Amino acid sequence: MKSIIFIFLGGLLICSAILKGYAIAIGKFNLNYLSSDPRLSLLIVDWEIILGIWLVLGKNSLVPWLFSFLTFLGFAITGFVLALSGFASCGCLGLLQVNPWIMFTVDVAALLLLLKIRPALKDVYNIKCKQAIPFALVIIFGITLAILCESTQFGQNIKAKIRGDQVVLRQSKVNLGIGQMDEWLEHNAEAVNWSSETVRIYGGTSACNFDILQDCPIDIKPLQEVKLRVRLHLKNPEGIFVKQEAAFWVSNDSGTIVWELPITLIGVLSENPAHFNEVDK
């Protein structure tokens, strides 16, 4: 019974990591409302794979049990906070849109299963280390390679060429910080031109609460990186957050629009959510 539960939870973590990994590979995933840094997403994917393999291969040991309990506890707290904040999806299954209340329920069920099979302290070192070490080495290599790809210009250039991206945004989600209702927040979005020709970027308009301030249109030379100022109007919140979907448009030398660079702007309201209706009045 204990081994079955360990294998089930390990498989659950591995499946979750695969879904996140696929979304990261096609450039359409970031942890919803938690961070705009893709490296955090990669680290969580790697941890889910390591822990999942550990649970599937290991016996009823206290160490993987403890790590599993802390992991699912963290997931449950995150899902609960996002659910209370009114988000439609937690972003924890990649491209699949899942209500945070559903994932919170799944995480709580996993915690209850772990509590039911809590191992004895004497089993703390009882794990198949010889089988786990090769997988751990592969994961460590993968983590190192992923961080290098995200942290170095060379790695990002290779990744852009593999995907076929010519112009990319460093971050598909930009956190503009905390502000008051009806306030405008400002930040920078970083764009990189990996192509061999100069391109021109156009911005949005204030009609969609998204505004490029004096920066667009702007020409970007090959292998050049530029910072584009953006701003977000804090209104129509989702819980304590204000989220705005927008896009940059990229044209070639002939002036034809050839790429769309979607971007999500996120701001946090310092007002108490209970007072939203009063503020709107």
Automatic annotation (TrEMBL):
The cellular location(s) given in this protein's UniProt record come to: Membrane
InterPro entries in the record: Methylamine_util_MauE
What keywords sit in the KW lines?
Answer: Membrane, Transmembrane, Transmembrane helix
Gene Ontology BP, a term: methylamine metabolic process
How is it placed in the membrane, per its record? Answer: Multi-pass membrane protein
Q: Which GO terms describe its cellular component?
A: membrane
- Where in this chain does the record put each Methylamine utilisation protein MauE domain? 4-114
Transmembrane ranges, per UniProt, are: 39-58, 65-88, 100-117, 129-148
Q: What is this protein called?
A: Methylamine utilisation protein MauE domain-containing protein
Q: Which organism was this protein described from?
A: Telmatocola sphagniphila
